[in-house]
Amino acid sequence: MTVSGKSTTTGKSTTTTSAEASVIERLKACQKIVVEASKNQLVEFMKQFSEALNGLVSEAKTDQERSKANEILREFNEKQEVLERYFCGYLGEGFIKFKNKTLSTETGEEKYNGDMLSLVENADLEETIAIASITRRADAQVSEAMWALNQRFAMLNGGDKVEDKGNPISPVQFCESLRKALRKLELNTKAKILAYKQFDLHFIPVSWI
After folding, report:
1. Each residue of 187-198: pLDDT tens digit?
2. 15: part of which helix (H) or strand (E)?
């Protein structure tokens, strides 16, 4: 899925302003670079995650725990390509949402305001805490770079201000892409939290070098 612009049609003719065409081309180029770079970085992440899942098998204290850990390990190893495809797809989709001015990705913490906390499942809460932690840490480490990128993306956004949640390459976008991609695999909460830990260690730092 790639970035495309809105067009106006009169009769059989379709026109796109040169300025908009330029923005689209820039976004497509950035989208391609980010997605391709992410594919390379995912290799190390998936290697480390697989090893961590192997560790769960070794640490299992009962046959039932060992059987479940092996099942999860097998599920992940068999569906690594699926994880990569969806992760990169969701990441690329962020550029389309940016172009359409609909990108506004949160960590999910907003769901815990007021009485909503009682309605949130424990598994979702644990995932959100992991993502929020990764995002805050990454934001602090790359705050200056993000400020500069937000200014550049604002130029591609008609001059409108761009915040981290609306920037297609901010840390929260990578975390949210992983959250959605992990839903395509049958992993329990323990395995997902382990995935975020390995993602934090072996993907996020590299993505900002």
Report:
1. 999 999 999 999
2. strand 13-15
